[in-house]
Write a structure and sequence with these properties.
Layout lengths: L3 H7 L3 E6 L2 E15 L2 E13 L6 H8 L10 E6 L8 E7 L2 H5 L7 H15 L2 E6 L3 H4 L2 H12 L4 H7 L10 H10 L4 E4 L3 H9 L4 E5 L10 H9 L11
Parallel strand pairs: 5-6, 5-7, 7-8
Antiparallel strand pairs: 1-2, 2-3, 3-4, 4-6
Length: 244
């Protein structure tokens, strides 16, 4: 049962971000000890929820959660390390969920490697944020459609051809909500960990102060070599060093 005491304990942990007539409710920070390459690293974790109804009333937000089965919906989150708000420069990663790579450790892609490696880069840098974008599975086509795309790839199609054959565009991911959350948490420059020029362009178009890019390649194997080459040749991913 929702009580005034419960609301009091949570109200300073929930922020309302208004964007394009909708609300992004950001909850956190929450202390999150994470196992990373054999060490326990303390991150600060946030999650967010987009709603069409905009309200600053925290009690109303909490009261409505139990009437919606949010476990059937996907919510994104962000891991913060170090003095993210105040540091002069910070590394960030916009990481799209990959059920097969991030959870199962699939070698068909490099997503699981990129997830852990970008977290390590952020910790080594001293401060940064990893945005984990839950509605980006299969470059935005969803897990079921991704499974169909995998079947087509086993018949010889590349990643782009499979998505197009199923009636999707090559990449339908949107970064608007993540960028609004980023702007709420930090206004100083950021360096983006990515090989994808579309991510870089989305940040730059938003007006965010982007000081540079750090590439993230690795974990190449017989299982993902074609996939990685398709990223470069068909999707324009940037191979090589830092670009300003």
């Amino acid at each position: 049962m929702l009580t005034a005491n419960t609301v009091a304990m949570l109200e300073d942990k929930i922020k309302t971000i208004q964007h394009k007539g909708k609300a992004i409710y950001l909850v956190g920070p929450i202390k999150l000890p994470v196992s990373l390459f054999g060490e326990t690293v303390i991150f600060q974790w946030y999650s967010w929820l987009q709603c069409s109804e905009v309200t600053e009333n925290i009690e109303e937000i909490i009261a409505k959660l139990s009437s919606v089965n949010l476990a059937e919906l996907q919510q994104s989150s962000v891991l913060i390390y170090g003095e993210f708000e105040k540091a002069e420069d910070a590394l960030i990663r916009m990481h799209s969920i990959c059920h097969t790579g991030d959870i199962f450790g699939s070698k068909r892609c490099d997503c699981g490697f990129q997830l852990k490696q970008s977290m390590k880069m952020i910790v080594n840098h001293g401060t940064g944020a990893l945005f984990y974008l839950a509605n980006h599975e299969g470059r935005g086509i969803g897990l079921f459609s991704k499974a169909l795309a995998y079947l087509l790839q086993e018949k010889g199609l590349d990643t782009v051809e499979a998505n197009l054959t199923l009636g999707f565009v090559d990449d339908s991911r949107n970064y608007d909500d993540a960028i609004e959350v980023l702007k709420t948490l930090r206004s100083k420059p950021v360096t983006l960990i990515t090989n994808n020029p579309r991510k870089l362009e989305a940040l730059q178009k938003s007006g965010m102060n982007v000081s540079g890019r750090e590439p993230l390649w690795g974990d190449v194997s017989e299982y993902n070599e074609k996939y990685l080459q398709t990223k470069i040749k068909r999707s324009g991913h940037l191979k090589g060093g830092q670009s300003k």
